[in-house]
Amino acid sequence: MTRQLIPLDQPEAWPVPLLSLLDCYHELFLNWEVAAWKLAPLAYDEAVRAVGDALRPYSVTGWHCTRLTDDEITQIVCSGMQLPDGATLRRRIHALVTVGQLTADASARLVAVNQADESNRAGRLWFCFFPPRRAGEHGIGRFFRHWGGEALYNLHENDPVTSPILRAIGTPCVVEADVPVASLAPGHRLAMKLIRIYLISHGYETDEPVEHEDRCVQPIAGDCIRRVIRYPEPDFLAITGCTEWRHLPGT
Predict the structure, then answer these.
(1) What is the 3-class SS of the chain, one letter each residue?
(2) Where are the domains of the chain?
(3) Which residues, in sequence order, are bridge partners of residue 216?
């Protein structure tokens, strides 16, 4: 189900009800940034919570950096993105065995050695809600070099046997999606970033970062997927800035 989109970097285009709420709390939010000692933390927390609640009916465009096979790309475009876990990873590995892209021995090793069921990884699908190129090679380069996601390649990228295998599978991709705010993990991190963007648009100056990245804890439906951008398509080069990296994603 698609929802109205909020362009995070264009406060002038935000929905009127949201802007009205932010205007109502303008002085409180500004005081918190410049003189927090003047305010009761409870008042600030309640105001942030109100903004967070107001955001839930909307979506924000996010980008997920990864490496995918052609079949996985087709599945995402048609059916959306499921939350990762050990069972999902095993299905993906076994699918590659079925089509001859992985040997039984290699698949057994990958199934046995991964972090996909760890509590800080399972059921979490990460997006950055700013153009990925801002993160640079240090921030996103690893996501493109090995297939399977961080929960798999973390334990294999330096392995002389399995690293080359994972590097040979799939294509570097950026999944662009309009992510429902309600699908993000509980909390008000997005609301706090949006408040700061709002204040900056009203002349407030800060060195605090406003780029937001977050984890979805609900699957992303197919109608939320805008496109899957593949390396070396021009849009991939532009959105990642990878032509300025030391190592291109496809090498």
Answers:
(1) CCCCECCCCCHHHCCHHHHHHHHHCHHHHHHHHHCHHHCCHHHHHHHHHHHHHHHCCCEEEEEEEEEECHHHHHHHHHHEECCCCHHHHHHHHHHHHHCCCCCHHHHHHHHHCCCCCCCCCCCCEEEECCCHHHHHHHHHHHHHHCCCCHHHHCCCCCCCCHHHHHHCCCEEEEEEEEEEHHHECCCCHHHHHHHHHHHHHCCCCCCCCCCCEEEECCCEEHHHEEEEEECCCHHHHHHHCHHHCCCCCCC
(2) 1-251
(3) 125, 184
Q: 203: which residues sit within 8 A by CB, 6+ positions away? A: none
Note the pLDDT tens digit of each residue in 150-161.
Answer: 999 999 999 999
pLDDT tens-place string over residues 194-231: 999 999 999 998 888 899 999 999 999 999 999 999 99
Q: Is the pTM of this model over 0.90?
A: yes
Pairing assessment for the beta strands 59-68 and 225-230 based on DSSP bridges: unpaired
Q: Encoding tokens for residue 153?
A: 């390649």
